[in-house]
Automatic annotation (TrEMBL):
It comes from Vibrio rumoiensis 1S-45. It is a multi-pass membrane protein. Residues 117-304 form the ABC transmembrane type-1 domain. The keyword Transport applies. It comes from the Bacteria. This is Putative glutamine transport system permease protein GlnP. The chain crosses the membrane at residues 9-28, 117-141, 153-176, 182-201, 285-304. Pfam families: BPD_transp_1. Belongs to the binding-protein-dependent transport system permease family. HisMQ subfamily. InterPro entries: AA_ABC_transptr_permease_3TM, ArtM/GltK/GlnP/TcyL/YhdX-like, MetI-like, MetI-like_sf. Keywords: Amino-acid transport, Cell membrane, Membrane, Transmembrane, Transmembrane helix, Transport. GO terms for molecular function: transmembrane transporter activity. Its main location: membrane. It is found in: Cell inner membrane; Cell membrane.
Length: 315
C-alpha cells in the first residue's frame, strides 16, 4: 500500500513556487528601475471620474423665486437649473463665462479594456457556434461513403490546419471580404470559425469512430434510418467523449481571437495596445490583459467541468 502524500507539505511547496515566481518578476523590474503604476490602468477598466458640467454661455449665478440656483444669461434668460447637481463649484452671485465648470456629476462607464473584453466575448461566442455547426457537417462528410464529400472534407481540413491563422485572416479580410463587402468584425468571425471548425471536425470524427460499430448496426436493425441512428444513438455518446478536447479547442479559440487585432478590430489585445500608448504603463497593461484572458478561459474551463460532471451523473 502506497503512503498517502503529505498535503500540507506539498501545498507549502506550491505556495513557495508561486512566491518565488512573483519575487523573480519583482526583482527583474527592480533591475531595470521600473516603477509600477497600477492606478493608471484602473480608469481603462472602469472609469469613475465625475463628469464636468460646463457653462454653455456667459452669465450670472442667481436664485430664482423658489430659491433654486440657476445660470442666467446676460439677457436675463434661464440657461440651466443648477439645483439638481450636488457638487457645485459656483454660488449665488458668481459671474461665469462659457466653458467654466459649474458642477460635477458622478458617473461610471466601461473603460477601453472592458470594451475590448466584450468584443472578444462576442467574437469568440459567434465563432464557437459557427465552428461547431461547420465542424459537425465536415465531420459527417469525412465519414461519408461518398468519395467526393469525403475528399472535400479531407481537403478542407488539411488546407485550413496546414496554414497559419494569421494568413487566413488576411485572405478572408482583404480578398473574400473585399469581394463580398464584409465588415471587419464579420471577416474576423468567418476566419476564426473556419479555422476552429477544421479542428472541431477531427475531434467529432474521432468521437464518432470511438463508438463501437455494433451501436449503429443495432440501431439500424431496430428500424432506424442512418440520420436517426446518428442523431439519437451515436452523437449523444460521442459528445460525452469529445467534450474535454472540445473544451481545449474552445479555449484556444478565445486566445486565437487576439489575432483579429491585425485587421483593426478593437478586441482585448488591440485595446491593450491603445491603452499602452496612452498610459505609458506597458507592464501593468499587459499583465492586466493576460489576467482578463485568464478569467475568460478559466470561466469557460469551469463551465465545461460542471457540464462534464452532470453528464457523468446522467450515465
Amino acid at each position: 500500500m502506497q503512503p498517502r502524500p503529505n498535503k500540507v507539505f506539498w501545498n507549502l511547496v506550491f505556495v513557495g513556487i508561486i512566491v518565488a515566481m512573483f519575487s523573480l518578476v519583482y526583482l527583474s523590474t527592480s533591475r531595470i528601475n521600473y516603477h509600477w503604476n497600477w492606478e493608471r490602468v484602473l480608469p481603462y477598466i472602469v472609469n469613475v471620474q465625475p463628469e464636468s458640467i460646463l457653462a454653455p454661455l456667459d452669465g450670472d449665478i442667481v436664485k430664482d423665486a423658489k430659491g433654486k440656483l440657476i445660470l442666467q444669461s446676460v439677457a436675463g434668460d434661464e440657461l440651466m437649473d443648477l439645483s439638481k447637481f450636488k457638487n457645485l463649484h459656483v454660488s449665488d452671485g458668481d459671474l461665469v463665462f462659457e466653458g467654466d465648470t459649474l458642477a460635477e456629476r458622478s458617473q461610471w462607464h466601461l473603460g477601453t479594456l472592458s470594451k475590448g473584453v466584450i468584443v472578444t466575448i462576442q467574437l469568440s461566442l459567434l465563432s464557437l457556434v459557427f465552428a461547431v455547426v461547420i465542424g459537425m457537417v465536415v465531420a459527417l462528410m469525412r465519414l461519408s461513403s461518398n468519395i467526393a464529400l469525403r475528399n472535400l472534407a479531407i481537403s478542407y481540413i488539411e488546407v485550413i490546419r496546414g496554414t497559419p491563422l494569421l494568413v487566413q485572416i488576411f485572405i478572408v479580410y482583404f480578398f473574400i471580404g473585399t469581394v463580398l463587402d464584409l465588415e471587419r468584425f464579420t471577416a474576423g468571425v468567418v476566419a476564426l470559425s473556419m479555422f476552429t471548425a477544421s479542428y472541431v471536425a477531427e475531434i467529432i470524427r474521432s468521437g464518432i469512430q470511438s463508438i463501437h460499430k455494433g451501436q449503429m448496426e443495432a440501431s439500424r436493425s431496430l428500424g432506424m434510418s442512418y440520420p436517426q441512428a446518428m442523431t439519437y444513438i451515436i452523437l449523444p455518446q460521442a459528445f460525452k467523449r469529445v467534450l474535454p478536447p472540445m473544451a481545449g479547442q474552445f479555449i484556444n479559440l478565445i486566445k486565437d481571437s487576439s489575432l483579429v487585432s491585425v485587421i483593426a478590430i478593437t478586441d482585448l489585445t488591440k485595446a491593450g495596445r491603445e491603452v499602452v500608448s496612452g498610459s505609458f504603463a506597458p507592464f501593468e497593461v499587459w499583465f492586466t490583459v493576460a489576467l482578463l484572458y485568464l478569467i475568460l478561459t478559466g470561466s469557460l474551463s469551469w463551465a465545461i467541468q460542471v457540464l462534464e460532471k452532470r453528464l457523468a451523473v446522467s450515465d
